[in-house]
Amino acid sequence: MNSIPLFLIIISLFAACLILLINFLKVPSILTKLISLSSIIIILILIGFFTASILIKKQILIYNLGAWKEPLGISLHMDGLAWFSSLFGTIIALFALIYSLKEKNYSFKFYFFFLILLSGMQGVILTNDIFNMFVFFEILSIASYILIAYSRENKAIKASFDYLLISSLGMSLFLLGIGLIYQGCGSLSLTEIGKNFNIKAGISPSMFRLAISLIIVGIGIKAAFVPLHFWLPNAHAYAPTPISVLLSAVMIKISFLAIWRIINTLEAINFQYFFLWIGSLTALIPVIWALSQTDIKKLLAYHSVSQMGFIIASFGAGSALSLTGSLYHLLNHSFFKSLLFFSAGAVIYATGIRDLRKLSGLYKKMPYVAIVSLVGALSITGIPPFNGFVSKTLITTSLKEYPLPSFFIFLASVGTVASFTKLMMIFLNREKVTQKNLGNFSPDKIRKIPKTMIYPLISLSIICLLSGIFPSWIIKGISNFILLKDLAYPLKVYSPSNIGKSLTILGLGIFLYLFISTKRGKQISLAIRKREFGLNNSLLLVLAGLLVFIIFMKIL
Amino acid sequence: MKRDERSEIVSITSRKLVPYILLFGLYLISYGHLSPGGGFQGGVVLGAGIILLCLSHGIFLTEKKFSPQKIALLEAFMITTFILLGIVGLLMGKSFLENIFPLKKVEEVPTAGFIFLLNLVIGLKVGAGIILIFYSLCGRGEE
Amino acid sequence: MEFYLTFLLFLIGIWGMITKENLIKKIMGLNIADSAIVLFFILIGHRQGSTAPIMEKGIKDVVDPLPQALMLTAIVIGICLTALALTLVLKIDKEYRTLNISEIEKLSRDE
After folding, report:
1. Which stretches of chain A sit within 8 Å of chain C by CB?
2. Beta A61-64 vs A75-78: how paired, if at all?
């Protein structure tokens, strides 16, 4: 039982090597897909059934690699947080794999790197050694650089190169932070560092703050904090759809959970207040760009950053309710964002067009996709009875005592409604989309969507609906078993005031959308869309973000 | 310079040097636990030897001896062997990647046991990897 | 004093990554920054008056071998990243016919 955390990492690595080996002989591609599918199912069974008891008994599974005890050796810890993130990561990977079976004829190299990406994601959150976390982050990053550039188009390769430079800069900063902590502590395992930092032996507080800010900026580049997020829209938009889903719904979450773990273990509570401000800015600023986009997947990618802002701001508030809301929104966002990306991928598969302005009237041809996109859009904008409503209510309730961040988050929600109204318009019949705008798109040329692409969509939409209608057991589970805190007062999520607030946001958002579709609005959108940040400016902004972090850490 | 006007000195010297470079790489791999060296370092020297052969004799000739397919097979085989070596420890009731041989006083190479095997596997894999990187940067990799 | 020198080297690497327009010079800047971090770690493990960590007869105090082992891993990762970045640059060069980042961005914006 104790060796299960090891198997979660090893099974996908071993399956990847098997795929590589058997493809030297001429085997049918069905065998590759079978091996990858079965390995993910085995991992899911291991997490779901065999280790579910650790939540109830509130124990931690510890496995020492190579039988070297801590603090000398590397050990894998599986506590509630790691269980939670492994579980939803593997579920989303399973859906992405099922989706990719019939979408395109992916070669065996795709599945090889997919499984390596999955094992990297498991490894980041399971390990207890900070340098091992760096190594797993790099495994994860290298697999994602290759997968983003898989389609070999110009924009995908440039997006992958930008991501490579920015992310490896971040990992270098992370490594610098590890060096400073090692100099102060003499040990690399997280539990040892946690004990030593309580006594504050051997390292001055300002060095400690510098190390923590370097680590947070380093991982924050992958977790989509605001001045560090400029690689994200291009990378998520031009990657193949299953990879966009895996990146957007799992990788940025796991990076954020790694920051969570480090801050909790090192007990650097002062920084949480700073996250509140970073989170509210992260929620607001990308929505302005998202409103002006015409590419479907880029719009969804900007919204990934914005929703991460909600999660970060709620983490920054620090109370039990806000932490629960943050984790719950993390889970919900994985589900509805992957639903939205899958349906965008289905639309692009069927019509071959990525531009919003050129599509209309798709409801008749693809009714399933239209309905599940509607479910996804309602979830992300926080309309009852879907799951986005519950988590957004938790977040806004817990942030009530901070007026300015609450205002930013309110504006971000309004902008979200507006841009998703814009997205949903492709399913309705629009008279303004004339024949000359449609170009090559004629309704007879739509490809039929294979069944394996529809099953993940339907399952995810059912999950979104059910976890919206029955939220209380998930909330209790998160707060009692994962955070080990008690929610002090009983929650009434479906109260009239909360529903009224979300309907107000809905109304204001539709009003904003109507403003955008006027001529003046279109001019502003074009001006914003032209202002894409290049690589040099993105790197400069990363450094500016680092300076801001360091200065704030010195002040606090 | 035309293709057949390749310098004789470079060609003969590199042909004489390459076996010693490969031997040096193997020395670095085997004595990795006693002196500076180890799996990765020795592997890079192995790869560098073959790259020297490519640079001095032209890539067409070198490909006939060290074809990309065979080297890719070697690399894939080595990484599977590494994970299997780790799992052998698991099957024998101990932890992953644990020393499965009885501990002896480590003075010379034959008594090194597990770490020597790991170094060897890693060294061959890294060598194969470096050669493959060179081949694909020249545009001759398997595509 | 030496720590400040390694930090200066790191800043030089990052300066190269940001300011230079050619893609290959950016990759070189990344390499310089990685080398600076390797030097920083090895400096951390240094103890005054100790010798290299090779266990022969009669050697008592050695420098800390742990950062050196960590840096082996970091060097390997740096090589992988450089190789991957160079492959991407090769492909970009084939498509855009230039290696200058401003021209590439202008070309890709007009597409």
Report:
1. 131, 135, 138, 142, 145-146, 149, 152, 154-155, 157-158, 160-161, 164-165, 168-169, 172, 175-176, 179, 182-183, 188, 530, 532, 534-536, 539-540, 543
2. antiparallel
